[in-house]
Design a protein that fits this description.
The chain has 359 residues and is of the alpha+beta class. 34% of the residues lie in helices and 25% in strands. The chain has eleven helices and 15 strands. The radius of gyration is 22 Å and the shape is globular. The N terminus and C terminus are likely disordered. This is Phosphatase 2C-like domain-containing protein.
């Protein structure tokens, strides 16, 4: 297996989010990922350094055995890698502390080995097989992948259909509510106020406080400068890093948008695909504004108190999408949002768009 490139990028400095990309030759595999961190950047940074390489190595080992490279096997491999990495971050790091002999500098060791377990991260990973023209999308958390697919309407005009390739692991997802309610039947207050035990998400890497047993958390509080167990956490673990995976056959002209929740707090799926379609068709025509008033009161635009006015002025499609997510044609709003420093910048999450090569 030959890895031709591995790219990483951070959303801002200091920041909790990162992205990475990897290409594997000679099989023409491409991997793209978005990591949305919380309670610190350590988990997201760790995943940005390791997850794609571990997934690609495991898939290559499966492929190299020449025992078939079908979707069920691909899913099994990806899930195993995700859960194994999370187990290392959360459980094996804790066990390392428990195995220390009495009298060790346990607090100092904990400050080092628990960094990735005490913080957390969502993860969105896309794996594209160019020769098979198959795209596999794995998600843990609330980042989202959207596919835009062009076609002609009845009048011969080019339009773009929206295909959602991932499932949001959030407190308003009925399937997640059912899964967690069944797993914790004696806790009637799991979901309140549109949150899951105070969280918007229901799955994540790291986030040890939502996975460690209460006895272990109490021991950490006493011996490792750990936090007191949350009063709402009665029967952990609650979070899991098991991904949900989808597979899509790719057609010429398809494009993929990957973004953390900040993008989707500003744009609907249809708006994001439409904006990319607009850029593809009219990026050489100068300024082109679309006046649009969102009916969705949950978007940041409603919080900012402005109407959506989209603009097509950028030569780079990812910048075009980011600009319209953050103010669009409203230059005053756009400049204010882009110049906002950390830590407020974390409210405007990293946005990434990938065009699938060869389509």
């Amino acid at each position: 297996m030959r890895i031709l490139y591995l790219q990483k990028h951070y959303s801002y400095t200091p920041g909790e989010d990162t992205i990475s990309a990897l290409y594997v030759n000679p099989v023409a595999w491409s991997f793209w990922s978005v990591y949305d961190g919380h309670v610190g950047p350590q988990t997201a940074w760790h995943l940005g350094d390791r997850l794609l390489e571990k997934v690609s190595e495991a898939l290559w080992n499966m492929f190299d055995k020449n025992e078939g490279f079908e979707v069920p096997g691909i899913y099994t491999v990806i899930k195993h890698v995700f859960l194994s990495i999370d187990d290392e971050l959360v459980n094996k790091s804790a066990q390392k502390l428990l195995d220390e002999p009495e009298g060790s500098q346990i607090k100092t060791l904990a400050a080092s080995v628990l960094q990735e377990a005490r913080s957390g991260s969502c993860a969105l990973v896309s794996f594209y097989e160019a020769y098979a023209r198959r795209l596999h999308v794995s998600v843990v958390g609330d980042s989202r992948a959207i596919l835009g697919r062009r076609r002609k309407d009845e009048f011969g005009q080019t339009i773009y259909d929206v295909h959602v390739l991932s499932v949001d692991h959030t407190a308003d997802n009925p399937a997640e509510i059912a899964r967690l309610t069944a797993a914790h039947p004696d806790e009637p207050h799991l979901f309140e106020g549109g949150r899951f035990l105070g969280w918007g998400i229901t799955r994540a890497f790291g986030s040890g406080a939502m996975k460690w047993g209460l006895e272990l958390q109490s021991w950490m509080e006493k011996n490792c400068l750990g936090d007191k167990p949350r009063a709402t956490c009665q029967t952990p673990p609650y979070f899991t890093a098991e991904p949900e995976i989808t597979t899509t056959d790719i057609q010429p002209g398809d494009f993929l948008i990957m973004g953390s929740d900040g993008l989707w707090d500003c744009l609907t799926n249809e708006e994001a695909v439409g904006l990319v379609g607009l850029w593809l068709q009219r990026n050489n025509s100068g300024v082109h504004k679309i006046h649009y008033t969102s009916a969705n009161n949950e978007t940041h635009y409603n919080r900012w108190g402005v109407k959506k006015q989209f603009v097509n002025v950028d030569s780079n499609v990812a910048r075009h999408l980011a600009r319209n997510a953050l103010g669009g044609a409203d230059k005053d709003l756009n400049t204010a949002l882009l110049s906002t420093p950390a830590p407020r910048a974390r409210h405007f999450r990293h946005v990434r768009l990938f065009k699938i090569a060869g389509c």
